[in-house]
């Protein structure tokens, strides 16, 4: 004999009902929101680049670098979260996905640089990796290029080729 559970029945029937996804905002609004995120990400690059380079410098790394790195990590985490929750149409999806990958890279390289610089048990292999840290690298330039391409797109009415 089975027991009916009305709250489960209601939940399942709610899932089974056809619902329409919420309407996307106009394309220019989507583009403006994506650009606002990219503008903030590019604005944070200077400090992030300095932190990664400082983590790669030989010798002890100051605690202020660690604190600043934590702030930068939070900035990129927040920007990544905003990107995840940003709904865009199919024409902007490749740009959106590329931006998500680049923001994730910025978070990752900051995190790894700080892990290497502030490890409690340094070893020669980790020190060798740390010594190669010089900054954000090519993905930083790629993010700036993406932002430039989207500003160009915003000023035009046609869609250029999707990012690589």
Protein described:
This protein is mainly alpha-helical and 164 residues long. The chain has one domain (25-154). The chain is 70% helix and 0% strand. It has six helices and no strands. The protein has helices spanning 6-16, 27-56, 63-84, 93-117, 124-131, 138-155. α2 runs antiparallel to α6 (138-155). The chain is globular, with a radius of gyration of 22 Å. The relative contact order is 0.16.
Brief summary of the model shown:
The protein is mainly alpha-helical and 164 residues long. It contains six helices and no strands. Helix 2 (27-56) runs antiparallel to helix 6.
Short descriptors:
70% helix, 6 helices, 164 residues, mainly alpha
Q: Could you outline the blueprint of secondary structure elements for this entry?
A:
Elements: H1 6-16, H2 27-56, H3 63-84, H4 93-117, H5 124-131, H6 138-155
Helix pairs in contact: 2-3, 2-4, 2-6, 3-4, 4-6
| Structural class computed from helices and strand pairing | mainly alpha
Task: Count structural domains.
Answer: 1
> Fraction of residues in helices?
55-70%
**What gap, in angstroms, lies between the N and C termini?**
59 Å
Q: Tell how many strands the DSSP assignment holds.
A: 0
User: Averaging pLDDT over every residue, what do you get?
Assistant: 88
Total helices: the number is 6
Low-confidence stretches: none
Cα radius of gyration in angstroms: 22 Å
**Succession of helices and strands:** HHHHHH
- Can you summarize the main beta sheet? none
């Amino acid at each position: 004999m089975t027991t009916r559970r009305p709250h489960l029945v209601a939940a399942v029937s709610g899932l089974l009902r056809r619902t329409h996804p919420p309407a996307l905002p106009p394309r220019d609004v989507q583009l403006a929101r994506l650009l606002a995120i990219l503008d903030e990400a590019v604005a944070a690059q200077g400090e992030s680049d300095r932190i990664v380079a400082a983590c790669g410098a030989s010798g002890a790394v100051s605690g202020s670098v660690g604190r600043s790195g934590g702030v930068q990590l939070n900035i990129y985490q927040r920007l990544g979260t905003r990107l995840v929750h940003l709904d865009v149409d199919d024409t902007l999806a490749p740009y959106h996905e590329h931006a998500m990958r680049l923001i994730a890279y910025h978070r990752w390289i900051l995190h790894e640089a700080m892990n290497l610089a502030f490890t409690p048990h340094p070893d020669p292999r980790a020190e060798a990796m740390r010594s190669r840290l010089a900054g954000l690298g090519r993905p930083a330039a790629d993010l700036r290029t993406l932002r430039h391409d989207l500003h160009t797109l915003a000023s035009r009415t046609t869609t250029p080729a999707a990012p690589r």
